[in-house]
Amino acid sequence: MTTDLQARITALTERLHHLNYQYYQRDISEIPDQEFDQLLAELAELEKQHPELAHPNSPTQRVGGTITKQFPTAAHRYPMLSLGNTYSEADLREFDERVQKGLEGADYAYVCELKFDGVAMSLTYEAGQLTQGVTRGDGTRGDVVTSSVRTIKNLPLHLRTAGPAQPPEFEVRGEIFMPLPVFAELNAEREENGEALLANPRNAASGALKLQDSALVAARRLRFYAYSFLMPGRSSLPTHSASLEALSAWGLPVSDTWRRCGSIAEVLDFVHEWDKKRFTLPVATDGIVIKIDDFRQQELLGYTAKSPRWAIAYKYPAEAGRTRLRDVQYQVGRTGAVTPVALLDPVPLAGTVVKRASMHNANQIAALDIRLNDMVFVEKGGEIIPKITGVDFTARPEDSQPIVYPTACPACNTPLIRPEGEAHFRCPNDRGCPPQRKAKLEHYVSRKALNIDGLGAETVGRFFDLGLVTDAASLYDLPAKAEELAQLDRMGEKSVQRLLAGLEQSKLVPFDQVLFGLGIRYVGETVAEKLANHYRTMEALMVATATELAAVPEVGGVIAESAAAWFQEPQNQELVARLRAAGVQLELTGEAPQAMSNRLEGLTFVLSGVFELHSRDELQALIEAHGGKITGSISKKLSYLVAGDKMGPAKREKATGFKVPIISEAELLAMLPAGPEATSAPAETADAAEDSAPSASNPTPIQGTGTQTSLF
Ligand SMILES: NC(=O)c1ccc[n+]([C@@H]2O[C@H](COP(=O)([O-])OP(=O)(O)OC[C@H]3O[C@@H](n4cnc5c(N)ncnc54)[C@H](O)[C@@H]3O)[C@@H](O)[C@H]2O)c1
Ligand SMILES: [Zn+2]
């Protein structure tokens, strides 16, 4: 008996250690959270009954995370714990009874907050300045990720002095998360590019914080919500609710969804109220956190090894549905990627009725062993489009049919290809395949591209279906068809006028956005900006070879190949010529960045690793402003390799082999003439780092806006 128990405890312990490792280190959830929590609860129960069988390092006793070894670490002044959690209202009432007992009849109140599903962060402010950001890590030590945290736009680097007096030094804790619209957008881009999808917004935020390059972190557009205040000694504020008010007065973003509740009944009301309403928030949430309001009462109740006794998390059950898979449709995207979409019997899920779900790709269908007519599980995991997460094999009907993936494009019948290493099949007929052409047009008119007022995706799609437009350049022939347009249903004189004005306006849209609008595979917003800034004119860009393109920082080999191939296609050259004739911006206007000196003229540099004082972009801009050149690869002709932290050993070896001098960031800066520009501090604001655009660094210190809800 005992050996059976011991075996079960050991098995659970090992399984949970493994799941924790996957979850915190690798951002992978092998099983749904609710299942994980059940395993943990089972282990806790067994350990309670047989404490002598518990493993000393049991996952019930410790915070699940660890430090990553990629960053310097710092000790937490106050341990960063986990929260006790429950999925049941009965447990909440029990929690309330324990609190009542613990406080021996004194009055108390709770604060209820949404449980944001991201990554916990500890921030230190000294004299009103953000000085450090540390992850939870193993609860005692965490990774120091200050420069990444500085890229978070709604997070103030300097606090305001409004509200209650600010302690000279204090800690703010809160959640770093990826807003849902950002998550949806990044995944749509990844889907188009055939890259692996981010599993959910939490993993996406956590993965972003593990990136070394803060410019890349900035591109993930993370945000922060503060939910706790800590200071050395006795708190200058009496209650948690007073501290939330103070934090927002000081400019820190506090979601205004919190509420003070006088009783457990009010807490339960809050829990019910947000059950569905939480889906209207632009941030993923998975429950409610309930905290004792009074700081002294918090102290009185104290802590277990793993979590405070004065707080608990109520988690909403995962929103999953079960329904029948009727059919599979194959959609062709802008770059030809074919994605399977499940057509389902309608099923209510998280406040909407779901009829379609994503199945990602052929591998996924095979991995889950999905067949037509199966009963499948659907989940809405922060994504806009729900996805199939599994099959109910106990209910597999006799008439279930294997899903036969098409071998030819469902739209144009061209045989599909699957490039090596890619998850998606593609239709290679990029110029003839109607859905690809249509999606390219939709992309061209979209907000971040040509942003054509009066011409949304739907309208341009309709024009395409009617044969009124065929490609981007043909849009500029629409003025000649004004009368015809005005005859269309739901168009009218006014809409046509607006559309024509929008078209005219789009001729002023800067070159980098036009380049993005061309929809070249892998040339996203950031890359388009890099290329436009580097080459300045379409003419120069179009004659660049793949090798030259790859030398532009942040333009990798795959991007370079894809862009060069695009420019070499005669049809694309013709398209560009027609756009030029239409008057679209095909070069950057305005001055090239001002030269500061010619000290580095004739010298070439490779930047590698992580730098301490400047971002890579800033160093690049400095080198170029002083007449130097950046290249991508190490060769005999290279003047210097500038080595930051964590530079790969291969680069060092190569440079040594070619006898290329290896210098540090400080040595590089020392080569520049003395002056404020040469040694200017790293970008002070998050804005400057966003999307890593060197030309956009126009540091204006961000201050908290004071509007509690403002996320963006
Ligand atoms: N699926 C898996 O394989 C797997 C593996 C490990 C962990 N998990 C999940 O992670 C959970 C454990 O994670 P945890 O230890 O971070 O605990 P937790 O996520 O249950 O609760 C603590 C965390 O809640 C967050 N939080 C959000 N809003 C908050 C607010 N308003 N106030 C205070 N905190 C707030 C903070 O980041 C805090 O660290 C488990 O319950 C499980 O669901 C899943
Ligand atoms: Zn096709």
TrEMBL record:
Coiled coil: none annotated. It is an enzyme of class 6 (ligase). It catalyses: NAD(+) + (deoxyribonucleotide)n-3'-hydroxyl + 5'-phospho-(deoxyribonucleotide)m = (deoxyribonucleotide)n+m + AMP + beta-nicotinamide D-nucleotide. The keyword Manganese applies. Residues 677-697 have a biased composition (Low complexity). Residues 595-672 form the BRCT domain. InterPro entries: BRCT_dom, BRCT_dom_sf, DisA/LigA_HHH, DNA_ligase, DNA_ligase_CS, DNAligase_adenylation, DNAligase_N, Hlx-hairpin-Hlx_DNA-bd_motif. Zn(2+) binds at C409, C412, C427, C433. One of its GO terms (molecular function) is DNA ligase (NAD+) activity. It comes from the Bacteria. Residues 677-712 are annotated as: Disordered. Residues 698-712 have a biased composition (Polar residues). CDD domains: LIGANc. Its cofactor is Mg(2+); Mn(2+). NAD(+) binds at D33, Q34, E35, F36, D37, S82, L83, E113, R136, E175, K291, K315. Its EC number is 6.5.1.2. Keywords: DNA damage, DNA repair, DNA replication, Ligase, Magnesium, Manganese, Metal-binding, NAD, Zinc. The active site is at K115. DNA ligase that catalyzes the formation of phosphodiester linkages between 5'-phosphoryl and 3'-hydroxyl groups in double-stranded DNA using NAD as a coenzyme and as the energy source for the reaction. It is essential for DNA replication and repair of damaged DNA. Belongs to the NAD-dependent DNA ligase family. LigA subfamily. This is DNA ligase. It comes from Hymenobacter canadensis.
